[in-house]
Amino acid sequence: MEKMSRVTTALGGSALTGRTMHCHLDAPANAISVCRDAAQVVVAGRSIFKIYAIEDEQFVEKLNLRVGRKPSLNLSCADVVWHQMDENLLATAATNGVVVTWNLGRPSRNKQDQLFTEHKRTVNKVCFHPTEAHVLLSGSQDGFMKCFDLRRKDSVSTFSGQSESVRDVQFSIRDYFTFASTFENGNVQLWDIRRPDRCERMFTAHNGPVFCCDWHPEDRGWLATGGRDKMVKVWDMTTHRAKEVHCVQTIASVARVKWRPECRHHLATCSMMVDHNIYVWDVRRPFVPAAMFEEHRDVTTGIAWRHPHDPSFLLSGSKDSTLCQHLFRDASQPVERANPEGLCYGLFGDLAFAAKESLVSTESGRKPYAGDRRHPIFFKRKLDPAEPFVGLASSALSVFEMEPGSGSMSWFVDTAERYALAGRPLAELCDHNAKVARELGRNQVAQTWTMLRVIYSSPGLASAASLNHSVGKGSSCGLPLMNSFNLKDMAPGLGSETRLDRSKGDTRSDTVLLDSSTTLITNEDNEETEGSDVPADYLLGDVEGEEDELYLLDPEHAHPEEPEYVLPQEAFPLRHEIVDTPPGPEHLQDKADSPHVSGSEADAASLAPVDSSFSLISVSHALYDTRLPPDFFSALVCDMLRFYAEQGDVQMAVSVLIVLGERVRKDIDEQTQEHWYTSYIDLLQRFCLWNVSNQVVKLSTSRAISCLNQASTTLHVNCSHCKRPMSSRGWVCDRCHRCASMCAVCHHVVKGLFVWCQGCSHGGHLQHIMKWLEGSSHCPAGCGHLCEYS
């Protein structure tokens, strides 16, 4: 949408006027450039190469430089530049590796002047010398930079960056012989055009390819760079080593960066993908843009300030086939939409709250509480009139501190260091972690680990001692105990009423399994007279397909001569104990008249003799496996993980995720898992638990997390003798043909772990250096430096 604001700027007798406007192009644009008088702009792309006049109300097409019936790759432009001294001179970088110059003063339709075909691959950037009319510099995908003298037909010098690709080249505005170049490997190099053999300075500027750079028009040593790591960095090149003075964090890869005229700390950026907007940043305020232009609907490919002394007009081209002029006054101000409140927890539990001064001014008179360690707890930051943004915001900050000792996080550190997350069976992991939690006084967490062991580990892994239950005073039974109660608590005379009638003369033998060790008692023809005081046990056993039956067994009348019969062990599956309320006497009276079951029909009976009391025990075994599958508890486990995460204990949530792995991963969405992992990893890194953090990343079940420790694994090294970058082909320098990584102790090539002193740069095998420094603190290379290994 076009905005109707209009600005007139006086520039040395001439005036720039215009408004926010745009025009539609025939094809997407790759680059734009403005002529010296700011009256025309050239637009170049794969299928477009035109010059437009910038009028007050619109863009007017003046010249189409794509002439001829046959399309030529020389006209497929990746970059274009308009000479700032000669208004008739243009240069383009073609995608086929050709550098073309154009002379607009030629009378013919074809304005092409010279062709330079020395590059082997696409030329990414061309740049004219700011004061020398005949010097042109190019940077190509083949890793070479070439300097052309337009009075000759070939290049005068070639610069090798020892890298895969050159992404940008820019002549310094203040230093006549200096230019900067950026590379795919993240390096920035400074060259002197008089010395093509080696660069003057090289440093790593970004974590990834550096796509663009721009020299500051006023400060001689400031160089701005932008890269794929979504950062814009400002470097001070006047120092001995390049010093980063500002860093701006953007939301996408930075494709172009241009300093704003007459504004020392302002620069404009556009992104290579995802983000279509153009941002103007104040480098002193790196998190919120000073202005934002939102006219484009596709990726912005080129930006240029209309005049080197006018900060009001910005021109841009885009892949949406539009050419726009942006008026700075019409730009949106993101700071106006920013949240004016902020809330943050400190590492040890302190809480900071920032808000507008008007919202908290009523509380400015309150006093700090007794446990406060810093006075006062509430304070207002005093504004410095000389500080930037003094008129934009005024805020007050409240700090709420934890009482001394109450915010200790030692349990978190101990738990992270002692937890076992892998390398053992699931049951052992759960038991170990439960023990750790119990020792740290976290009983709920310990109980949770125990329950997870019960749910997910196989029952065969449990020890028999933990699953046998006591029956009576001195015996245990391998069968699950269902009901148990004492006959002392029953009504008197119950024994005579429930006496079994054994007068039919049939003989039977009852085999009783006392424990897991095949200890048997055989009882045959046990009879009891009414009123007998001989102790006996009443056993109530479940029989397959029939009712329960009450047996009166007298252990003193057992006949040892009878052969022992042992039931198969698998007939008695282990089950958990269920203790029911003892039934009343009426239940026993009903059972007293039940028919007898012969010994061959009964499956098992359990005998527990008691010295002075009767015990009535109901024993039952399962005819099938009643263990619930782990999937039955999946919803419950997921609710448990969310509970711990909502309570702030992401350590427990992440640890369970890692231990259970695929058992629970499918039931929790990927975004939630990633959020838990990032929160836990952030806490571990705050407490400097780097090894634990790396282990969590390595064992994570989230794909987005498991790749965190796989980034930035490339180390670029230089030869210790000639200082040239080392190739990836071995330990021998390509230039001086000497081994770069020699051990200072054994004088052999180091092919494994290499350790070096940051003071003198000498080093060698890790074990050799450690052994050397045990007896001497001087460098083994003999340089005299006092080395230290920690």
Automatic annotation (TrEMBL):
The keyword Oxidoreductase does not apply. WD repeats lie at residues 116-158, 203-245. Pathway: Protein modification; protein ubiquitination. Its main location: membrane. Residues 498-509 have a biased composition (Basic and acidic residues). It holds the Pfam family WD40. Keywords: Autophagy, Lysosome, Membrane, Metal-binding, Repeat, Transferase, Ubl conjugation pathway, WD repeat, Zinc, Zinc-finger. Its EC number is 2.3.2.27. SUPFAM superfamilies: WD40 repeat-like. PROSITE patterns: WD_REPEATS_1, WD_REPEATS_2, WD_REPEATS_REGION. Catalytic component of the GATOR2 complex, a multiprotein complex that acts as an activator of the amino acid-sensing branch of the mTORC1 signaling pathway. The GATOR2 complex indirectly activates mTORC1 through the inhibition of the GATOR1 subcomplex. GATOR2 probably acts as an E3 ubiquitin-protein ligase toward GATOR1. In the presence of abundant amino acids, the GATOR2 complex mediates ubiquitination of the NPRL2 core component of the GATOR1 complex, leading to GATOR1 inactivation. In the absence of amino acids, GATOR2 is inhibited, activating the GATOR1 complex. Component of the GATOR2 subcomplex, composed of MIOS, SEC13, SEH1L, WDR24 and WDR59. The GATOR2 complex interacts with CASTOR1 and CASTOR2; the interaction is negatively regulated by arginine. The GATOR2 complex interacts with SESN1, SESN2 and SESN3; the interaction is negatively regulated by amino acids. SESN1, SESN2 and SESN3 convey leucine availability via direct interaction with SEH1L and WDR24. This is GATOR2 complex protein WDR24. The lineage of its organism: Eukaryota, Metazoa, Chordata, Craniata, Vertebrata.
